[in-house]
Design goal:
mainly beta; 6 helices; five-stranded antiparallel β-sheet
Length: about 425
Amino acid sequence: MNLIERYVYDILKNNAKLKDGTVAIYQGIFSIFGKMKGAIRSNYDIQVFDDFFFGFHDKFSLNKEGKLLGHRASSTFIAGIGKAKIGYYEIDQPDVFHELAETSCCNNQQGSMLCWLSSNKIAYNDYIDNNVVTVILDINSKETEILPFHFASASPCSYLFSSINYCRFGKGIRGYGYDIAYNDEINSDAKNEISTSQCGDLVVYDIKNNEERYRLTSKEARELSISSFPKLNGYEYFSHTCFSPDSQLMYFLYRSFNGKKNSSQLFVINFLTGELKEMPTGGMVSHLHWLTPRQIVAYCNLKDNKDGYYIFDLNTDKVTPFIHAQLTADGHPNAYTNNERVFVTDTYPDRERRQPLYLVNEEKNTVEKILDVYSPRKFRGVERVDFHPRFSQCGKYVTVDSPHLNSRSQLVIKL
């Protein structure tokens, strides 16, 4: 993003419709040049798995055994929401799709929140017999365990699950909900979501000990956020929960949408002490990930400061901007926490509809572009295909969702 683009963006960012309209016109002029540069460019070895996407950037899709997890749409997605087959590919046998299940709870941006719990167990959201559920599936035995809530994240220890209300999430950000919330309960919270998430509470369940580990209501979060949102009057909801690599902490966002823009406040809960910490953000937190077990890298702003990448140190309470000439726009960071201070991130398509991916060493302050693709203009709004980059569990690969074949594909990039 150049200086002129940044200036215009800062003016328009608080009005989503005006911003999106301006971007569409601007990209319409320059996209022909981006298309001429080719569908995909990289100096790295890449495998392409077409008609197969994963979802968000806070979970790995490729495990240590070389199994690549993902979704294949099994219905027409309306407003970015539909049904999908769930399965995996062995990356050394890319022609064989191993179908495991089908879910009615899927969207383009976060899928079904599909994730690996272990080498042989996965979890995903579904809607069964008029109830919202999390399904835990053993991919070998095909045995399932059903949890009576929709989950947002699972801890690395595999027995803590955060739960949010996807009806509220989907109304707060279009395209992030599921069919049931929109088709049956468009003007009110889905009945089963209320019974499990208490009208939008954030809940953490301990499934090993069969107990509720933590709960935060919207009212409590609003009272804690009053310094950041002195005129909070929008539609409120929780989103973007993620456990730390050692499962001792969890960050999450508390958001408010007033019809034009989303305001976001970042919190961190410590499960060892019970402390809830409000981070010093200035009302905008878009995407983030754990850089280390006690550090978060986020694209956000601070009070009286500009948008950018910041490192939050939870041991010292210090916040440090990460400034680099190539990282000037919003992106989705994902860190390989076993190799501290290294992360990948992307940006949204630029004026030529080129979509880049960067490998970042925060400690050395180096940034390398490792991939860029052309994103066809039909992939906008709820139909967009964000890279949502994810390190593999072994750290030797990065996977992304890509639109370069005019469909949703998952790429495996060997580092």
